[in-house]
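Fill in residues.
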């Protein structure tokens, strides 16, 4: 998939979540619920770092997702795509229990902070 197609694919997924959400077994997950799934797991992973770091991380995650556009850096697009895919797999796992639980994407707080600056 070339860069333009990837960019459009990610932006379309994000747009769909904003406008329609993700539906599974009579439950609809909006973009905010998808973000919350990821944030909850990241808070758990980095709980030892303290409230200030966690709160900054959450703000940075929300900023990356909410400010993604066609001019965003590839890393930001890849981050949002990975997060959306992870959350959808997590929702499927919650309802279906037929797969292994998805692995939390391996992003650090520093990587997330750097993406916000781009």
């Amino acid at each position: 998939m070339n860069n333009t197609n990837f960019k459009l694919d990610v932006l379309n997924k994000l747009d769909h979540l904003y406008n329609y959400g993700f539906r599974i077994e009579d439950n609809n997950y909006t973009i905010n619920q998808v973000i919350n799934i990821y944030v909850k797991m990241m808070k758990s992973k980095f709980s030892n770092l303290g409230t200030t770091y966690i709160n900054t991380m959450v703000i940075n995650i929300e900023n990356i997702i909410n400010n993604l556009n066609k001019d965003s850096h590839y890393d930001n697009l890849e981050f949002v795509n990975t997060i959306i895919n992870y959350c959808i797999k997590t929702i499927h796992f919650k309802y279906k229990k037929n797969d292994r639980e998805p692995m939390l994407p391996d992003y650090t707080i520093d990587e997330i902070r750097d993406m916000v600056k781009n």
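The mean pLDDT is 92.
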